[in-house]
């Protein structure tokens, strides 16, 4: 998968180099380009915004800068062609040994039938969900356009639909200064779902949201810590009982914290009779 980010704060995307994401870059599972939007300005002040038509506070980002920038990132031309892709800071132990080099196109070499995906982070977007992360984790080329929160001239988004499949997306009901942190959030959610990025492919089977419920608590050694014991069932060696206990914890936590998710799970027919008994009792059923 190839990811490109357009931003006026390229250094804000530094965290992409680290930990799991850096490793995915190193292993050539993802290629990441971070582009400074100001490279597409033509005036001496490198202005990217201007006052809004109709008046009001704040500034709006200029279509004359964003239009060519998005064209170039889609086509791999202009300043987008010479961007230095983010390289992980850790030693390139595995560089050049990947067998998955064919998976991602080079910039500007998309299949003519599939437009790249353009994500525009905005508090006015549709809510980002685990489902979207899962769908986008199979994309070949995803481009993120970071605007300031007053936004980008709407015609940029409208016109980009000629070149991209465009989605305006919010990461929650609060307002950030710009889209950069939202991009970090979405990239992490997407990339961890790509096969080979997490050590154990099964480790996201039980994720919160993957099955419509919140994940229950986890424990490790020691068995007793500061007077607190690991629940006995987890030491029982009875796999069936452990699974039932985990399911109960998951159900009860979801009921307490996210009744909206629980209702959706009920409506989708994801709960068994036994699940419903646990919820009605408000406590795990004793065997
Ligand atoms: Cl995606 N962008 C900005 N600027 N603010 C947000 C957001 C995105 N999601 C919630 N607040």
From TrEMBL:
Protein name from the UniProt record: tRNA (guanine-N(1)-)-methyltransferase
Top-rank taxon: Bacteria
A Gene Ontology BP annotation from the UniProt entry: tRNA N1-guanine methylation
Reaction catalysed by this enzyme: guanosine(37) in tRNA + S-adenosyl-L-methionine = N(1)-methylguanosine(37) in tRNA + S-adenosyl-L-homocysteine + H(+)
Binding site residues for S-adenosyl-L-methionine: 147, 171-176
NCBIfam families cross-referenced by the UniProt entry: PRK00026.1 (NF000648)
Keywords noted in UniProt: Cytoplasm, Methyltransferase, S-adenosyl-L-methionine, Transferase, tRNA processing
Main location: cytoplasm
UniProt organism field: Corynebacterium anserum
